[in-house]
Amino acid sequence: MVLMASLLIHLVGILVFGTIKFVSEVLREETVFEAAPIEPPPQKEREYTVNLPQRNKSTPPPRPPAIVVNNPSELDIPALDIDLNVDTSAVYGRGGGGFGGGGLAGLREMSMDINFFGSTFSGDANRMFFVIDMSGSMIMGSRGPEGYKNVVDELVETLRKTNNKGAFNIIAFSGKVETFKSSFTSVSAQSIEEARQWLMERDPAATVKSTNPSARSFPPRHRGTSSGKALQVAFRKRPGVIFFLSDGSPTDMQPAQIYTMVEELQELQGGQKVPINTISYKTSSGFMKTLAEQNEGKYTQVQ
After folding, report:
1. End-to-end CA distance of the chain
2. Sign of the CA dihedral 204, 207, 213, 217?
3. Among 48, 195, 240, 291, which lies 20 to 30 A Cα-Cα from 41?
4. Domain coordinates of the chain in residue numbers?
5. pLDDT digits (tens, 9 = 90+) for 219-235
6. Are β-strands 177-179 and 241-246 bridged in parallel, bridged antiparallel, or unpaired?
7. What is the rounded distance in angstroms from the CA atom of residue 195 to the CA atom of residue 201?
8. CATH number of the domain located at residue range(s) 111-302 in this protein
9. pTM attached to this predicted model
């Protein structure tokens, strides 16, 4: 009985487990294996090392901003008035120093023979300075109402004969001193005409109606002869040659004082004297004769 029972139990167990195994094998779904996604390995960003000293050596510094000048002719920079026609000029160095910003050594000059009132003068045509008396006495006596105008006409003709070479400036003086330009301007048809108009605006004859005027009939602008002050202003512009025209002696300083002042101004010009050519207009003047002799210039008396 025990054996039969044990056998029966085993048979039942086999049937149960066999059935379960059979059913599980039939109903089991096929397992699908999916490959895991492949991710690229992370990449490090490239590091750049900048050698600043080396880059600074290879990179030029920024250029400074350009300087714009609305009106170059009004600039007080005489050193820039350099004639480019060196093939027709005598070129040599000029010392620095004197008035102004310095650093003027080695400026080129253009030596030229300049004819003014029938006399020939030699000088630096790049910096010609005409110092013209505009006092009322310029139209008095033998000079007459056209006296000052005749001087202007002669100066204009002198500039025209330079054939547009060189540069010039003008001072008109009486009791006060007036300057045509703040610096030297190139000789041209336009600048000559501007100079003529500027000078004629200072004609003492335009301020009086009398045909035989006296000193008192002129306004203050045309009274006195400030020769010393005019020469002082001219030297401040660093001229290459000065043409000084007047009809009388100075009234602002004694002649001896002017000689001493000019001597001191010459010493500030770098060791080379500026020639001062004097023109005594329809009079004789010991003052202007001595002034020329002491400053390597030429004295001319206009009859």
Report:
1. 180
2. negative
3. 48
4. 111-302
5. 888 999 999 999 999 99
6. unpaired
7. 10
8. 3.40.50.410
9. 0.65
